[in-house]
Amino acid sequence: MNFKQFNYLIALAQERHFGRAAKRCNVAQPTLSTAIRRLEDELGVPIVMRGQQFIGFTAEGQRVLEWAERIVADQDAMVQELSEMRGSLHGRLRIGVVPTALPVVSRLTRPFCDSYPNVSISARAMSSLEIQHGLDNFEIDLGITYLDNEPMPRVKSAPLYREHYCLVRAVPAAGTSRAKTISWQDAAGLPLCLLSPDMQNRRIIDAAFAAAGCRPTPQIETNDLADIGLHVKTGKWAGIVPRHVLDMLNLPANAQALDLVAPEVSHSVGLVVADHEPQPPTAKAMLALVESMGGGDIFAQD
Predict the structure, then answer these.
(1) Is 168 helix (H, G, I), strand (E, B) or coil?
(2) Is 3 buried (19+), middle (13-18) or exposed (0-12) by CB count in 10 A?
(3) For residue 165, what is the enclosing H or E element?
(4) What is the C-alpha separation between 200 and 146, in angstroms, rounded?
(5) How far is it, in rounded angstroms, from Cα 198 to Cα 160?
(6) What are the DSSP calls for 271-290, one per residue?
(7) CB 160: neighbour CB atoms within 10 A?
(8) What share of the chain is helix, strand, coil (3-state, %, to 5)?
(9) What's the angle, vertex CA 147, arms to CA 144 and CA 148, rounded to 5?
C-alpha cells in the first residue's frame, strides 16, 4: 500500500467517476484503475462495485475509504507539524463557510497570513450540512457556521460574532420613512426574495416567522446572497439578510434596511474544527487566532 493509492481512492470517492478522478490526480485512467485493483489484491477485499461505470463502494471499500481519508489527513498534519518545528509553518488551510459568513473571511485571512505567510488558504461557500460532512471526511480543515442553531456534533468551536437580521428594500424617495424597524409579521406581507431552504439562514428566518405566527411564501428563492441584492435593486422584492452582509450586496442609494423585531432574533456564528487528534497545525493556528480576537465579536474591532 502507498499514499498514491489512497489519494486515487479519495479522488474517486469525490468525483464519482474514474475518468474525472484520474484527471484530478494527473494520471491516465488505466493507471488509477490498476492502482485500486492492486489495493484490493493487497487487502484481500473488493473495494469498488464493478460495472460499466462507477457505481459505488462495497461495504469493505467504504471502510477502506474512511481509513484512507484519515491516513492522508494525518500525513498532511505530520508534514505541517514538522515544518512548524523547523520554525515556519507550511501547508494549506481548507475552510468551508456558510454563505452569510463570507464577508468575515478576510478579517481572518489577513492577520493569519501576516503571521503564517507560507500557508495557502482555500475558502469556499458551503451549507452547514456540507461543512459537517467535510469535517467528518477530512475534506476541509475547519468551518465557519452557526454555533447555537442546529449545533454540530464532534467539533470544537470558537465564537466570532452574533448575526442580526434586517429587511432590505428599495423605496422611492417619496416613500422613505423614519422607521428603523419592521415586525416579522409585517415583513411577511411583502413580496420576498429569500435564501433557499437548504441554507441554515433560511431555516432561521422561517423559524422567526413561525414564532411571529405567520408563514409567508417567498416568490423568489436563491442560494446566492448577491442575487438577493439584485432582486432588491429591481424595487419589486424585499430581502431578509444578516445586517453585516449589507456592504457586499451593492444595494442602490434608495435601499432601506430595517431591523426585524417581534421577535428580535440573533444567532452565534463561529469557527468549528473536528474534535479529534492530531489536529492539523494550520487549523489549530487559526483556532488560536480566533480565540484571541474580539472576545466572540469580530466586529468589535471596527
Answers:
(1) strand
(2) exposed
(3) strand 155-170
(4) 8
(5) 23
(6) EEEES-SSPPHHHHHHHHHH
(7) 23
(8) 45, 25, 30
(9) 155
Q: Which of 163, 237, 231 is nearest to 199 (CA)?
A: 163
Q: How far is Cα 293 from Cα 116, in angstroms, rounded to an integer?
A: 16
Block mean pLDDT (10 aa), the chain, length 302: 88 90 92 91 90 85 88 84 84 94 93 95 94 91 94 91 94 70 96 94 96 95 93 94 91 90 94 87 92 75 58
Query: How high is the pLDDT of residue 195?
Result: 94
Residue position matching grid coordinates 485512467: 29
Give the cell for residue 202. 433560511
Give 264's Cβ-side CA count (13 Å radius): 3
DSSP 57: B
Q: Report CA Rg, the chain.
A: 23
Task: Report which of 62, 272, 245, 270 is spatially closest to residue 155, judged by C-alpha positions.
Answer: 272
Count the Cβ atoms, other than its own, within 10 Å of residue 106: 10
Distance between the two ends of the chain, CA-based, in angstroms? 52
Distance (Å, whole) CA 229 – CA 161: 23
